[in-house]
Structure formats: structure tokens, C-alpha cells
Amino acid sequence: MNAYKKFSYYYDEIMQTLEYDLWLEFIEPYLKQNAKLLDLACGTGSFLMLAINKGISCYGLDLSSSAIEIAKEKAKINRFNIDYKVADMTNFKYDFKFDVITCFFDSVNFLDSKAKVKELFNSVYNHLNDGGYFIFDIFSPYMMKEYEDNHFVNDYDTFKIDWLTKKINPTTLKHDIKIIEDDNVYKEEYYEYFYDFKDLDFSNFRLIKIAGDFNDDLEDEDERIMFILQKK
Questions:
Q1: Among 38, 42, 183, 192, which is 20 to 30 Å from 60 by CA?
Q2: Phi-psi group of 6: left, alpha or beta (phi > 0 → left; psi -120 to 50 → alpha; rest → beta)
Q3: Residue 99 DSSP symbol
Q4: Per-residue pLDDT averaged across 9-13, rounded?
Q5: Which ranges in the chain belong to alpha helices (H)?
Q6: What distance in Å separates the CA atoms of residue 209 and residue 62, rounded to the nearest whole number?
Q7: Spatial distance between the Cα atoms of 166 and 164, rounded to a whole number of angstroms
């Protein structure tokens, strides 16, 4: 299962440079007042902690039980009413629909087949109100090339991370993560899969926008390809 375990407890500190406000700014034109927003692969909930300040109803799901545990605790500490649950983003169930569904930080690339991506799109479609928006990203060919042999090592206040990313075949990246804290060593591995956006099936949606790295257009050196789809 491509779900964070121990890594979840270190994620916020390691990823503290992520600019969640840019993602919120990107989706804001599609958030009407009193909207219901569902964030797929929500991780530890940092994005929704910002989004809820816009006066909308926020929901999040993630395959990682440890990430959801942390997200719930963060919401409780800040007295935010955010509904979280552990679920597979390709096959989730709610008894109501949403105005906007998001899936960020190349989470779609964690799915290991086009069939799984299709299941994701179907689940999203079934949970969107008519005219609702699905906003997501995938990593670009440029990013695939940049990370095909990447080694990140860093010392934090209480732990050290050794993160090696390797391209193991033309469409797959393998992440080997080692975290050292005191005398404990935690090892986890994750896989990401490249998808050409031309191969994605948007047949149930209207393509509203394709952008790169929050720009109005898509450049060759953009790391993320961002999509805004609308339910027909």
C-alpha cells in the first residue's frame, strides 16, 4: 500500500516549505460561499487548515491512518471543524456531494495504473454536484527527469532524513526514505508513476484550464501540470 506510516509524523517539518497558500489561491475562484470542499490524499490536513478560513465546509480523506490521526489532532488543537476519515481516494463513499474536490502534490501519481486513475475520476464524478469542479495536479516530464536520481539528506532538530529517489523504469520513481531519531531507524518506500496528461480520460468532465506551477500557461520546465475540470 502506498500509504505513509511513520513518515507522517515527520511530514510537516520536512515539508514546511510547501506553499499551501498558492494552492488555495489557485482554487479560490471556484469556491462559492458555503461550498463543500473535499481534499483527497489530504495528508496531515495543512491545506484544509487554510481553506476552512474561507467560510466553507471542509472534508479530507487519506489512505494513511497515521496522517489522518495527525490531521484530526491539528484540527482539534485549532478548534476547526474539519471532517476527516481514512479512505481510498479511488473508491470512497459519502452520502452527499461536493462543490469542489481537490487532489494535490502529485497524489494522482501514487496510483499504479490508468485503471486506478479512471476509478479515481469515476469516484470524483459521482461525488460532485452538477457543475462542480475537480482540481488536481500530476508531475511533469521535467519533474520526472529532475527526480530520476535525487538524494536529499537533512538534519532537523530531533531527527535526520535520508531520502533517495531513483527512476527504476521509464514510468516509475521509487522513494527510499530513512529517518533516524535517537537510536531508532525507520525505513519506508513509496512509488510514483508518470502519466502523460494526453492519456487521461476527461470524458465526463469539461476541461476548464491546464496550467503549470500556478502560471496561466504551461512551460517545458514547469514541475507540476495543474488541471481544473468541471462536471458536465
A1: 192
A2: alpha
A3: E
A4: 93
A5: 8-14, 20-27, 46-51, 65-77, 114-126, 141-146
A6: 26
A7: 7
How many angstroms separate the CA atoms of 127 and 96, rounded?
7
* DSSP characters over 174-221: EEEEEEEETTEEEEEEEEEE---GGGS--TTEEEEEEEETTSSS--TT
Check residue 111 and give its pLDDT.
97
Helix (H, G, I), strand (E, B) or coil at 47: helix
pLDDT in tens, 173-225: 999 999 999 999 999 999 999 999 888 999 999 999 999 998 888 999 999 99
C-alpha cell at 222: 514547469
Residues 158 and 183: beta-carbon distance below 8 Å: no
Query: What number is the average pLDDT over the span 133-147?
Result: 96
C-alpha cell at 195: 502519466
Q: Say which amino acid occupies 47.
A: F
Q: Is 182 left (phi over 0), alpha (psi -120 to 50) or beta?
A: left
Report yes or no: 102 and 27 within 8 Å, Cβ to Cβ.
Answer: yes
What are the angstrom distances between the C-alpha of 83 and each of 39, 86, 95, 164, 182?
10, 11, 14, 34, 34
Grid coordinates in use for 194? 508518470
The CB density around residue 51, as the number of other CB atoms within 10 Å, is 27
| Cα separation, 20 vs 110, whole angstroms | 20
